[in-house]
Design goal:
20% of the residues lie in helices and 51% in strands. The chain has 74 residues and is an alpha+beta fold. The protein has one domain (5-67): Flavin-binding protein dodecin (Dodecin subunit-like). The protein is elongated.
């Protein structure tokens, strides 16, 4: 049995809370690649209002997926 090859891409997304931002990134990734196997949050940032209250969050996520046979060079 051949061990699978994986590829990792770095993606970013925004939402009103951190969990939704991560879910947004993973949902979009799942629309364009198959067999997403893991993710890792690399960075969390966001915007604040004049009072310093968070108004939105942005996450940068490494998304790893399995490469189909014959696509290793993609």
């Amino acid at each position: 049995m051949v061990n699978p090859i994986t590829k990792t891409v770095r993606l970013a997304g925004r939402a009103s809370n951190i969990e939704d931002a991560i879910t947004t990134v993973l949902g979009r990734a799942a629309q364009t690649v198959e067999q997403v196997v893991t993710f890792r949050v690399v960075e969390i940032g966001g915007t604040v209002d004049a009072a310093g209250v968070p108004t939105g969050y942005e996450v940068t996520v490494d998304v790893t997926f399995t490469v189909r046979p014959g696509e290793e060079s993609a």
